[in-house]
Design a protein that fits this description.
mainly alpha; 0% strand
Length: 72
């Protein structure tokens, strides 16, 4: 199966950089996009991020989102 157009290394780097900026800036409204990126990255390259690290990242982002939703 061929990769979709725009799914090359440059596009992944750009998405990773954007995700990093969202997390670093603590822009919680965009955390679901970061979670989706992490899931798609895990599916595309399973060995890139260790399972435990991936799950801890996802759990932390979900927890922060839920906490701010409850507070706000």
């Amino acid at each position: 199966m061929a990769a979709p157009p725009g799914a090359g290394p440059a596009a992944l780097r750009l998405a990773a950089a954007a995700s990093w900026q969202v997390v670093r800036g603590r822009r919680v409204e965009h955390f679901p996009r970061v979670l989706e990126f992490l899931r798609s990255l895990r599916a595309a390259a399973p060995g890139l991020v260790r399972y435990r690290h991936h799950e801890r990242l996802c759990m932390g982002l979900k927890a922060k989102s839920a906490l701010l939703l409850i507070q706000g």
